[in-house]
TrEMBL record, chains A, B:
Protein name (record): Redox-sensing transcriptional repressor Rex
Cited SUPFAM superfamilies: NAD(P)-binding Rossmann-fold domains, Winged helix' DNA-binding domain
GO BP of this protein: negative regulation of DNA-templated transcription; response to redox state
UniProt xrefs under NCBIfam families: PRK05472.1-3, PRK05472.1-4, PRK05472.2-3, PRK05472.2-4, PRK05472.2-5
UniProt record similarity statement: Belongs to the transcriptional regulatory Rex family.
Ranges for domain CoA-binding: 79-180
InterPro entries the UniProt entry points to: CoA-bd (IPR003781), NAD(P)-bd_dom_sf (IPR036291), Rex_DNA-bd_C_dom (IPR009718), Tscrpt_rep_Rex (IPR022876), WH-like_DNA-bd_sf (IPR036388), WH_DNA-bd_sf (IPR036390)
UniProt-annotated binding residues for NAD(+): G90, A91, G92, N93, V94, G95
A Pfam family assignment: Put_DNA-bind_N
Predominant location category: cytoplasm
Amino acid sequence: MVRSRVSDAVIRRMPRYYRYLVDLEKNGVERISSEKLGRYTGLTASQIRQDFNCFGGFGQQGYGYNVTDLKNTIAGILGLHKHYQVIIVGAGNVGQALANYTNFKDEGFTVAALFDTQSPPVGTFVNGVLVWPVEKMEAFVREHQVDIGIITTPQSVARKIAERMAEAGIKGIWNFAPVDVSLPEQDVCVENLHLSDSLLTLTYHLNEDPAKKE
Amino acid sequence: MVRSRVSDAVIRRMPRYYRYLVDLEKNGVERISSEKLGRYTGLTASQIRQDFNCFGGFGQQGYGYNVTDLKNTIAGILGLHKHYQVIIVGAGNVGQALANYTNFKDEGFTVAALFDTQSPPVGTFVNGVLVWPVEKMEAFVREHQVDIGIITTPQSVARKIAERMAEAGIKGIWNFAPVDVSLPEQDVCVENLHLSDSLLTLTYHLNEDPAKKE
C-alpha cells in the first residue's frame, strides 16, 4: 500500500509531537488521548488524529496512545533511528554554536568537521571538532560517510557551497545563510532556516494594531 | 478602514519578500513584476498579489512594483523602521552566537545585555556585551527600554524566564529553548524557534520513500 504524499504542514508538526512525547515519557505518562495531547501541543484532537492518519494512524479507539510507542513510531518516521554524520561549512558564530550544541549529539548527530576559509584558524579545534580549509571539503566528504551538510557561511557563497556539497554526494543540506537554497535536480533535501525571518515575524506582531490581534 | 486579521502564513512570507527585495535593490533592479518576483521567491504571481492585497496592495497594473518602494513598505509592515533594544537570557553557545550576530545590528537590533547563572562568568564581555547575573534581569529591564527578550536557556527554565520577562514589561519574546512558550494573557508576542524541529524535518525527508518525493 503506497501512502500518498504527506503535506509539508503535517511533516512540520511531527517534530513538535515528538518533542512533547519525549517530555510526557520523561514525566512518567504512559498513555494519552488525542484530546489531552491536543491541549498540550495547542492543536485540536481531530487535527492530531488527521495528522497521524497520514502515516496509517497509531491510536486505539477508547484507549488513546501509548506514549512510548507513539514516541518511537514518530522517531522512526523522522529518521531518528539512524545516526547522522554532519559537517559544518562556515565556522563563525552560528557554525561554532552548532558544533557545540550538545542536544544534537544526544539525538544521534555527530559533527565530524568544520570548514572555513579564515577564522577560527584552520587546524584549531572547536569543541573537539577540527577546522579544515574549505578546499578540503569534497575530499573529506568522499572519504567519510557524511549525511548532512550545514551551511553557516555568508550569503554570497552559500549557494556555491550547497552545489559543492551536492556534487560531493551529500544528500541533506541544512542552510542557515540568509538566502534560499534549493537543489531540486540533484535529489538533495534542503531545509532553509532563516533566523531573521523568524525575528521579523516577531517585530511584525510587536507593531501590529492591538485591535487586530487575537 | 480596518484591515482584517492577516493569516500567519502570509505574515511568515513577508520577511522572505523583504529579503529578496533587499537583494534586488542591491543588484540595481528598479522595478519588478509579480511574475518575476514569483520566479525569484518560488511563489506564484497570484499568491504574491494576494499576499500584498492583505495590506492594501502595492503594485500598479502594467508597471509592477518599484523595488525600493516595495522594500520600504514591507520594512514598515515588519516594524523595521524602528530600533529594538534586546536582551539575551542564556549566555551559552546559541546566546553568544546571537550576541555576535552582526546581521542583527545592521537591521536595527542592539543586544544591550546577556544574562546567565554561570558561564561565561558574570562580569565578562561577549562581543562587547556584558554578562549579568540573571537575578538582575528585572531591574535591568525596568531601567532600560528593552523591547525584545531572547531565551536561549535550557528547556527546564525557559517558561519561568518568559514569565519573568513578561512581568518585567517585555512585550516581545524570541524563544530558542526546545519548549513552546506562549503568554496569551499577558499581551506578549512570542516567537518560538526550534532548531531541532527544523533539523528533524530534514531527516524526515532524507528517509522518505524516494517514490513519494516531489
